[in-house]
Design a protein that fits this description.
732 residues, mainly alpha, 3-stranded mixed beta sheet, 3-stranded antiparallel beta sheet, 65% helix, elongated, disordered N terminus
Amino acid sequence: MSHHPRKSNFGIEPFKNPVILDPGYADKTWKMLEHGIRNILNNNYDGLSFEVLHRNAYNMALHRFGEKLYSGLVTTLTRHLQEVSASIEAARDDQFLEELNRRWFEHYKALTVIRDVLALMDTAYVSESHKTPVLRLGLVLWRDNVINSKEIQARLPDALLRIIQRERMGEVIIRDSVKNTKMLMEYLEPSLYEKDFEKPFLDDSAIFYAGESQVLIECCDCREYLKMVERRLREEKERASHYLADRTEPKILSIVEEEMIAKHMRRLVHMDSGLVSMLLRDEYEDLGRMYSLLRRCAGGVSTIRDLMTSHLRETGKQLVTDAASSRNPVDLVQRLLDKKDKYDKIITGVFGDDKTFQTAVSTSFEYFINLNSRSPEFISLYVDDTLRKVSEGDGGKDVEIVLHKAMTLFRYLQEKDVFEKYHKQNLANRLLSGRAVSDDAETSLIVKLRVECGHNYTSKLEEMLTDIKFSQDIMRGFYASQGVDEEAGEGPTLAAQVLTGAIWPSRPSTACKLPDEIHDVCEKFRAYYLGSHACRKLTWQTDLGTADVVATFGNGQKHELNVSTSQMCVLVLFNSADRLSCKDIQQATAIPLPDLKRCLWSLACVPDMNVLCKNPTNNDIAEDDVFCVNDNFTSNLFQVKIDTAAAEEKSESEQQEIRQKVEEARKDQIDAAIIRVMKAQRVLNLNSLVTEVAKQLQPRVLPDPAVIKKRVESLIEREYLEDNKNQYQYIA
C-alpha cells in the first residue's frame, strides 16, 4: 500500500460579489510596491510603512495580480543586482572581499523582509504557478547576476588565495569581513570552482608547505616541528570550514600531511630529538603527537613501531646480558618489569592501545629475556623474594599485582621447565625456613602457573603444600601421644616436617651429630611416626633445619638466636666448654669441614652478629683457630637471625646440576611427545614431526629443532621408529 503526500487545498477564492477595480489599480499599486522594494534592497527604511506595503501586496495577490507581482519582483531584483555587481567590480583589490560580503549580507537581509511583505504571493501564487519561492529566487538571481559576473568570477578565487597566503604568513585577518566567502564559493559552478580556485589553491599550498617544511626540518628539533605541523593542520581545517567548499577540506589536509609529514617522517622519527629521545625521557605528550600525526600517512605507524622495537630490543639486550645486572637478579627482574610497565603505559595511553605495538613489545621481551640462559632462575628468585616479603608481613596487599606482573615475564620464557626446577627448590626453602608462609599467596601463584602450563606442571608444587599441612597434624598427634604441651613443655621442642621424597627437590644431605637432648626427642618422634607408618623410612635432613636458641651472655643479657641446625650444634657445645678449636668442634659435630668453616665464619666473623670470638682475629677459618663465647655481644633486638655464609662453588654446581636434570627430563618429554605424535599420524616427514612435537611441548618448553631431530635418531636406534627415505614411521 503506497502513501502519497496530501496536496495543499490552499488557493485564492474569487469574491462572491464582483469588485470593480480601477483599470490602473495594478500599475499604481505595483509602482508603490516597487518603490518600497527598492528602498528595502538599498537598506533605506526611512518613511516605509510595512503595514501598507503588506496590505497592498496582499490585495494584489487577492485580486489575482500575482503574475504582475512576481515578474515585477524579478525585474526589480535583477536591476538592483546589476548595480550591486558593478559596485563590487569597482572595489579595489584590498576591499573586494569585504565589499562582496557586505553586499551579500545586505541582499540576504533584504530578501527576508521582501519575503514577508509578499507573503500571500509567496505561498498562494508561487504554489499554484510552480514558481521559485521569493527567498530562493533572490539567491538564484544573486548567483546569476553577481557571482557569475565574469570579472567577479575571475577576481574571487585570486582574492581568496591572497588572503589565505597573508594569513598563512602570520598576518592577522579580520575573518568577519569574509565570513560568507565559503557560501559564495559554493555558488560557483563545480567545474569553475575546481578549475579556477581549488586547483590553484592546492598547487600553491603544496609549494608553500614544501618550502616551509624544508626550512623547519633544518632548524627545528622534532618536538617543535611536530607542534608546527599540528598547528598548520588545525589552521587549514579552520580555514576550510570558514572559506572553502566542504569537498576541499580533505584535499588541503592531505597536502599538508604529504608535504610536512610523509616526506620527512623517517628523518623526524630518527632525529636525536625524535622517538628514542622521547622514549628515554618519558615525553608522553610528544609521543602522542608524533603518533597522531604520522598515523595519517601510509607507513607512518610502522615507521614508529619499527624504531621502537629496535630500541626496545637493544636496551633490553644490554640489560639482561650485563654482568653487573646479573649479580642482583631481583633488581634485574624489577627493572624488566618497570620497562614492561612503561611500554604498556605508552601503548595504552599514547598509541591508542594499538595491537600491533602490543605484539611488537611482546616479541621484543621474548627475544631479549631468552638471550640470558639464567632468566628462568632470575624470575624464580624475584618471585621467591616477593613471597618471602609477604610471609614477613611486608607488601602483602600488593602481592597479587606483583605476581601478575611476574607471570607476564614468565610467559615469555622458552624454558619454563627450568623455571619449574628453580621455583620448586625455592618453594621448598620457603616452606622449610621455619617462618610463616602466606598460603594464599603461594596458592595464588600455583593457580597462575597451572593456568599457563597445565596441572602436570604444578602437581608436585601442590603436593609440597599438602605435605606441610600434613606435617602439622602429625606434630600435634606426636605431642598429644607424649602427654606434653608443645608450646609449654620443658626441654627442647621439635617441629619436624615429614616430606615425601619423590615430590620434594632431591639434594645431597650434610649430616651432623645432634646434641643428646635433641637426638632423644628425634628418636621418640621416629618411634611414634613409624608406629603408624610401618612401611615407611625416615631420613633426617639436618642441613635443611633451623633452631631457635636462647643464649645468655656475660652481661646477663638474653637473646633468642635464630640459627641453622649446624650452628645450633656448634653453639650448644659451649654449654660445657669455654674454648674449642675448629678441629674439636668438627670431631664433636661431624659436620664436614667446608660446611663447618662457613658455619663458624657466620658465627664469629660477621660484624654485629659475632656471638663467638675467634683467635686469631682474621676472616679466614683454620683448623687450629680457637673459639669462645663473645660475652660482650649486644643487640637492640631480642630475636637475632644469623645467616650461614653462602657457598659460591656449591651454588654454581647446583646450577649445573639443575640444568642437567632439566635436560634429562626434557629428553624424556620430547621422546614421549614424538611417540604420541607418531602413534596418531603413523607416517610423517621430519619438518612436520618437529612442528607437531613443538606444539605438544608448548608452553612448558620450546625445544631446539636440532634437539628433536637427535631424539628422533635415538628412537630409531631403539627401534621405536623406522626411517624410510626421510619418512618416519611408527613401529607398533
